[in-house]
């Protein structure tokens, strides 16, 4: 009986650091800046996943973690304001989405730790100095490289082998990104027999114009690059491509869920879960600059069979083999 | 009392010097011994346990390291076997579309493979399927000189060195040669980040984990992925450095495949490692030292608590035993003290059944002996005292007798001298007085013829008669004086006559008759009742008959005198003078009692009645020497005794006891008188 007590006390002692780690520290404040609007289906996925993940790590929203959530509606100017608002509340950390959102936060602070997701080429974009050692106050998770535009182009070609003309739309206000995509399109397009170009869009009108002019060309296809604008206007883009019977490939599964044809993408939930781990570590004292930026290593091919059928496209067996999710 | 007072003070100083009582000494010794034994036992136990626990912990860690290495190797083997299905001999003959399909399936099956390429037998890339880039068909890139191709052809399977994409993500090229003659090669780029799934699922206690480094110490898998991505070189970490140097020295890597080292986070850990020879990686498993040694600490705590318990029990038991031991000793002490103070009435009662009980019994026995000795001693002292008193009494008696003897002896000599000197003139007086009386008669005869007138004649006769009367008186008193002197001479001259055995009853009867008739002769009116009670067994005794007769006559005539005197007092009517004489046999002695119912003897007289010349009779009637003489005769001459019992006005009884052979022992008490002149 003594022995058991002793062992129990030892076990308790051994377990102490763990329980101490799990103990919730003083109340902290987290600012969240998402680029989408309320209606975007990824918003609840991101928010709920973050909430759950942080909850499992000992951070309960509204209890020991005060959360300020801002939705940027794809408006860069608005997001800059929102970043200032968030920082005014003196958060311990800001969680930002996308190149647009992260740029807004980066411009607003050089001291408050920032954990980003869904950023492409964080080194080229100037967010961090290196992936292994970010160095500054930002770190996070990148989902795609510019090379992915080749994957999207190939997916487009596989879905609709007749496509010889493609246009990729994105907000051109971030020149590194735009140039990166443009260069990749130019590099990989010829190999696939596609004449591809990047097209800058700022709003619904420009989107409509870009798609409409593209649809006017024969054997054309659309690539919707990952961006705040394209995300916010997903519904219009999908409706427009459906109306114009234009095959389109997207960067996010949510857009395929809404009726888009296909996407080669990452799991948003998984990105958020990983980010939650970094948020936890930073809130517990880890230095932001020491946490390496992680790139996604798992990718999903999502195809909407209904849209494909509507477009009169047949899905090859190799494409079916590739597909991780098929939406009927 | 002094000694008794001194003893406790001595005791108290001794108690100050040796303040530890027996119980405490015993308890201290007992507890000390038990503690010592427990300490030794505990130390030995700990020593052995420490070795055991350490060996166990190391063994466990070593096994875990091997298990971890196996799992990491299984990860690689899995990839190899997945690739395996694109390496069939006929694979290169299937359509490119089918090949691409197979590669796509491979990517789906093996998430860690980021890119896979098919190199034809000449080393040209025929197909490349990537997760990151567009698939390339028939790019014709030449890999014929690349290690991935040549090594795979040479060795069937080739694991390339670990490299880092964009300086962050660890990758490794795995190429597998196809089966059959003139084979192609399937080359896969494997994202080693996914070993994380394997490494993080290796649980080692609650604080331990596993990690993997390359042969150069570069970290490629760690539960904290950020460390891997941060391009961490662990070759300077002690355990890694030790493992690397051990590998450098080659061979017996197992000899030192564990280490107690400082981990990345600074704590002490027990680290073990195992190598994966195929890829030349080292898998480390480490556990915080405290956790690894927890069984040891548990056993230390157990040993210590058992020791504490043991000491506690020993203290309790020691105290109890000491108390048990001391209680009877205290009783013994109390008992001994009681005995020491002389109280032997109680016994020590101890029933412990051991040596102390035996000791108590010995004490009791001793006390009994002492008590017995006391009692015997007292009896002896009493006896001796009695003996001494008797002796003293005898001595006093002897002394008195001696004094009396001396007194009488000197008196006797004096008396004898005086009597002798007086007797001569007295003889002259008596003789001449008798002669003168006769001469008066002759004178009257002479005068008879003379013619004298009547008147003158009458006067002459008258004077002659007066003269004759006077002379008669002179003679009478002279004779009396003469008798006194005779008695005095007798007194001083004992031992007269001879001693011989005499029939006591006859002697007494003769004396009684003599006395009675003597008294009747002197006084015709005398009358008395004589009572004789002679014991026929009185027998004979060796006595001086004349002397004894004188004593009896003396006593009897005293008795007659006393009755006469009482009768003369004439008080009571019906008074009958009685004299009773009794003899009695007392064995070697004989008793004679002479009892009269006369006036008795008052106490004042009784004390002095045996003194010489003491008499109560009117002057001229007694010499005062009767009883004195009787006493001397009986006591000194015969060795007997004379006692008197009397009650004034009622009776007097003299009791004579005589030894039957008393006269032979007796000595003459008075020196023989000088010869008469």
From TrEMBL, chain A:
Family matches, as InterPro entries: ABC_transpt-TYRBP-like
Identification of the protein by name: ABC transport system substrate-binding protein
Pfam family, one: ABC_sub_bind
Organism ancestry: Bacteria, Pseudomonadati, Pseudomonadota, Alphaproteobacteria, Hyphomicrobiales
Naturally occurring in which organism (per UniProt): Methylobacterium brachiatum
From TrEMBL, chain B:
The EC number(s) this enzyme carries: 2.7.13.3
Transmembrane regions: 26-48
GO molecular function: phosphorelay sensor kinase activity
All residue ranges annotated as the Histidine kinase domain in the record: 417-662
Membrane topology: Multi-pass membrane protein
Enzyme class: transferase
Keywords: Cell membrane, Kinase, Membrane, Phosphoprotein, Transferase, Transmembrane, Transmembrane helix
GO CC terms: plasma membrane
Localization, UniProt: Cell membrane
PANTHER family reported in the protein's UniProt record: SENSOR HISTIDINE KINASE (PTHR43065), TWO-COMPONENT SENSOR PPRA (PTHR43065:SF42)
Name of the featured protein: histidine kinase
Organism per entry: Methylobacterium brachiatum
């Amino acid at each position: 009986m003594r022995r058991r007590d002793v062992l129990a006390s030892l076990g308790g002692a051994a377990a102490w650091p763990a329980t101490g780690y799990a103990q919730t520290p003083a109340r902290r404040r987290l600012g969240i800046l998402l680029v989408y609007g309320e209606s975007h289906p990824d918003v609840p996925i991101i928010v709920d996943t973050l909430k759950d993940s942080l909850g499992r790590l000992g951070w309960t929203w509204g209890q020991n973690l005060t959360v300020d959530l801002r939705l940027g509606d794809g408006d860069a100017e608005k997001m800059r304001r929102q970043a200032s608002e968030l920082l005014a509340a003196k958060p311990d950390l800001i969680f930002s989405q996308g190149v647009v959102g992260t740029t807004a936060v980066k411009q607003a602070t050089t001291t408050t730790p920032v954990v980003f997701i869904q950023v492409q080429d964080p080194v080229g974009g100037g967010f961090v100095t290196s992936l292994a050692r970010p160095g500054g106050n930002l770190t996070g998770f990148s989902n795609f490289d510019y090379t992915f535009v080749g994957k999207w182009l190939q997916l487009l070609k596989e879905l609709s082998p007749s496509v010889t003309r493609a246009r990729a739309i994105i907000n051109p206000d971030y020149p590194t990104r735009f140039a990166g995509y443009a260069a990749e399109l130019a590099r990989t397009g010829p190999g696939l027999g596609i004449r591809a170009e990047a097209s800058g869009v700022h709003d619904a009108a420009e989107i409509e114009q870009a798609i409409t002019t593209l649809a006017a060309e024969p054997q054309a296809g659309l690539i919707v690059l990952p961006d705040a604008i394209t995300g916010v206007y997903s519904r219009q883009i999908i409706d427009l491509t459906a109306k114009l019977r234009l095959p389109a490939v997207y960067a996010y599964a949510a857009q395929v869920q809404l009726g888009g044809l296909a996407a080669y993408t990452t799991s948003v939930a998984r990105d958020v879960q990983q980010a939650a781990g970094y948020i936890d570590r930073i809130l517990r004292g880890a230095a932001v600059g020491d946490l390496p930026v992680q790139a996604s290593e798992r990718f999903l091919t999502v195809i909407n069979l209904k849209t494909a059928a509507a477009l009169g496209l047949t899905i090859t067996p190799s494409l079916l083999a590739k597909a991780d999710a098929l939406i009927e | 009392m002094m000694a008794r007072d001194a003893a406790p003070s001595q005791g108290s100083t001794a108690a100050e010097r040796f303040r530890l009582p027996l119980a405490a000494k015993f308890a201290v010794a007992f507890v000390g011994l038990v503690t010592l034994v427990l300490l030794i036992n505990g130390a030995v136990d700990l020593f052995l346990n420490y070795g055991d626990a350490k060996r166990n912990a190391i063994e466990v860690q070593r096994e875990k390291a091997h298990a971890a290495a196996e799992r990491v190797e299984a990860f690689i083997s899995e990839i190899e076997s997945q690739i395996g299905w694109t390496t069939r001999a006929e694979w290169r003959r299937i359509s490119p579309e089918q090949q691409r399909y197979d590669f796509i399936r491979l990517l789906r099956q093996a998430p860690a493979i980021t890119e896979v390429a098919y190199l034809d037998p000449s080393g040209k890339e025929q197909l490349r399927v990537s997760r990151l880039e567009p698939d390339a068909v028939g790019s014709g890139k030449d890999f014929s000189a690349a290690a991935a191709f040549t090594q795979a052809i040479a060795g069937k399977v080739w694991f390339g060195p670990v490299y880092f994409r964009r300086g962050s993500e660890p990758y490794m090229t795995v190429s597998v040669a196809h089966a059959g003659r003139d084979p192609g090669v399937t080359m896969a780029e494997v994202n080693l980040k996914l070993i994380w799934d394997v490494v993080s699922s290796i649980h080692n206690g609650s604080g331990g984990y596993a990690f993997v480094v390359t042969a150069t110490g570069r970290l490629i898998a760690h539960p904290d992925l950020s460390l891997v991505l941060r391009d961490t070189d662990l070759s300077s970490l002690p355990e890694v450095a030790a493992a690397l140097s051990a590998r450098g020295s080659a061979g017996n890597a197992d000899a030192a495949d564990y280490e107690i080292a400082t981990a990345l986070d600074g704590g002490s850990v027990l680290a073990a490692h195992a190598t994966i020879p195929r890829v030349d990686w080292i898998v480390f498993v480490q556990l915080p030292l405290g956790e690894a040694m927890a069984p040891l600490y548990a056993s230390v705590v157990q040993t210590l608590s058992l020791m504490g318990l043991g000491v506690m029990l020993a203290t309790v038991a020691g105290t109890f035993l000491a108390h048990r031991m001391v209680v009877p000793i205290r009783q013994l002490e109390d008992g001994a003290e009681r005995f020491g103070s002389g109280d032997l009435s109680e016994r020590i009662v101890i029933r412990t059944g051991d040596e102390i009980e035996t000791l108590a019994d010995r004490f009791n026995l001793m006390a009994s002996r002492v008590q017995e000795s006391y009692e015997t001693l007292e009896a002896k002292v009493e006896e001796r005292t009695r003996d001494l008193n008797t002796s003293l009494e005898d001595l006093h008696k002897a002394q008195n007798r001696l004094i009396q003897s001396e007194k009488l002896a000197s008196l006797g000599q004096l008396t004898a001298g005086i009597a002798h000197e007086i007797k001569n003139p007295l003889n002259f007086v008596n003789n001449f007085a008798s002669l003168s009386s006769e001469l008066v008669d002759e004178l009257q005869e002479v005068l008879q013829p003379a013619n004298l007138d009547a008147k003158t004649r009458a006067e002459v006769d008258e004077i002659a008669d007066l003269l004759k009367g006077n002379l008669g008186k002179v003679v009478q008193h002279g004779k009396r004086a003469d008798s006194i002197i005779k008695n005095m001479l007798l007194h001083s001259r004992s031992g007269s006559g001879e001693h011989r055995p005499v029939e006591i009853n006859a002697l007494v009867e003769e004396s009684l008759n003599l006395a009675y008739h003597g008294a009747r002769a002197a006084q015709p009116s005398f009358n008395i009742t004589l009572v004789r009670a002679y014991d026929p067994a009185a027998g004979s005794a060796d006595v001086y008959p004349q002397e004894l007769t004188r004593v009896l006559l003396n006593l009897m005539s005293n008795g007659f005198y006393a009755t006469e005197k009482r009768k003369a007092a004439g008080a009571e009517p019906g008074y009958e003078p009685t004299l009773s004489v009794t003899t009695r046999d007392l064995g070697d002695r004989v008793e004679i009692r002479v009892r009269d119912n006369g006036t008795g003897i008052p106490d004042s007289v009784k004390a002095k009645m045996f003194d010489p010349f003491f008499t109560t009779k009117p002057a001229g009637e007694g010499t005062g020497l009767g009883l004195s003489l009787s006493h001397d005769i009986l006591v000194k001459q015969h060795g007997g005794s004379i006692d008197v019992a009397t009650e004034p006005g009622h009776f007097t009884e003299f009791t004579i006891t005589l030894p039957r052979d008393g006269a032979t022992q007796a000595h003459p008490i008075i020196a023989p008188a000088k010869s008469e002149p």
